[in-house]
Amino acid sequence: MSVFCLASVNVDHFHRVDHLPRPGETVAASAYGRGLGGKGANQAVAAARAGARVVLIGAVGPDGGWARDRLAALGVDVRHLAEVDAPTGHAMICIEPGGENSIVIHGGANRAQHEPGLTRAMAECGPGDWLMLTNETSHVAQAAAMARGRGARVIYTAAPFEAGAARAMLPLLDLLIVNEGEAAALSDSLGVTPEALPVPACLVTLGARGARWHDSGGRTITMPAPRVAVVDSTGAGDTHAGYLAAALDRGAPVEEALQLAARAAALMVTRPGTADAIPVLDEVTAFAATIAPTEPAP
């Protein structure tokens, strides 16, 4: 089986600051770095590092060759990463000492996907495969419909969040991923509780408190996150999503998949960076041996 990712690919610019800028404030950065990022690229790398076969569908600009090379080096199939006449997407990330961040993104090439290229890539997708989506690219609904039409399952991270876009995607999904605030906003817009969102399964991420899984069978699983010293929280949710997808792709039970994802995300936030900071499966296994077990909460 394979995990397909219609993925945003960004250049991440990191700025270490004493505190996150307030409106109208200029803050001096104590350190600067550049790396590979984008929610979709991060999820693709996480799934690959968790052991899945990952096919990335996306676009970069003429300046994005280094991103293609880095994705390939991290184990991602980049045959369907196109070059388009637009700048590669980028993100400006400020990180304070406690690891909290503030991010501004520019979509660039991520918003210039070519539908013929998407169609060619999705022709390789079939029953048993998964497609991962976020709101950082164009052609999200089209890709989901193509995947479902070919018998694949769809995971959608509804970020950056917009309630209307999320509502439109619900009939096309097998798994919806939202944070606590997004779950509340989407539920309010539909007049239901988060547990009753009309999807087969919904994962509500709770930050340092872990994540909560609801499914249409009436099951609720709350998986706490291991306690760690946070260096940089950027990309933690993407790491969680990619590891979860990889575990589900190989047939792991939901509880096991959630536990693995929680451990991978916890290890990731102890490191600076985004895609390059995502741990490989052996590192997560070794890390798990050093922490107290994380079992589903009652």
What class would the helix/strand composition place it in? Answer: alpha/beta
Summarize model confidence as the mean pLDDT.
Answer: 94
Give the oligomeric state of the chains in this entry, treating copies of one chain as homo and distinct chains as hetero.
Answer: single chain
Low-confidence regions: none
The CATH class name reads: Alpha Beta
CATH topology: UDP-N-acetylmuramoyl-L-alanine:D-glutamate ligase
CATH hierarchy: architecture? 3-Layer(aba) Sandwich
Intertermini distance: 32 Å
Helix percent reads 25-40%
Written overview of the protein:
The protein is built from nine helices and 13 strands. With 298 residues, the chain is α/β, with parallel strands linked by helices. It has a single domain (3-10, 36-88, 113-288), classed as Ribokinase (UDP-N-acetylmuramoyl-L-alanine:D-glutamate ligase), CATH 3.40.1190. A nine-stranded mixed sheet has the order 5-4-1-8-9-10-11-12-13, sandwiched between helices. It has a four-stranded mixed sheet with strand order 3-2-6-7. Helix 6 links the parallel strand 10 and strand 11 (201-205). The chain is globular. 48% of the residues are buried. The model has no long low-confidence stretch (mean pLDDT 94).
